Amino acid sequence: MPAAAPQKLTTFLAFPENAEEAVLFYTSLFEDGEVLHTIRARAGEPGWTEGTLQHALFSLAGQQFMCINTPPPGARGADHAPWHEYSFSPAMAIYVQCATDAEFDRIYAAMSKKGEVVMPVGSYGFSAKFAWVNDHFGVSWRINLSAQTSGQE
């Protein structure tokens, strides 16, 4: 696999244990979603189960994201931070600009399934169609369809 071109700013997500599930979910939602690189736990690595995803670089709509499974107790790096105290906050969200109603509806349905709807789908004055959702991993998404594209399929 060729190395991904470096990106000046990259969103970094730290999951407590389900990073691989999240990466596969997110890359399935975007046409060009792609896993670019992974690092997995090796046999005998303290704290980890062999094969567990430790780190991933993936791309959604041309934007690279990086994520980890936080180090479990006994693993290298587990003592670098109080990982068990960290969680995602809706104050930080990934903003998705949709090109069509169909794209908006598909992404909203997937993100809201088992997630939490903060702002239901609506026209809020600043947008013809907008929703704010925390997905089932706790990551916050703001999904928008602008007035210029509203009504297009």
Automatic annotation (TrEMBL):
Gene3D superfamilies named among the record's database cross-references: 3.30.720.100, 3.30.720.110
The name this protein goes by in its record: VOC family protein
Taxonomy, superkingdom: Bacteria
CDD domains: PhnB_like
SUPFAM superfamilies: Glyoxalase/Bleomycin resistance protein/Dihydroxybiphenyl dioxygenase
Highest classification ranks of the organism: Bacteria, Bacillati, Actinomycetota, Actinomycetes, Kitasatosporales
Ranges where the PhnB-like domain occurs: 7-143
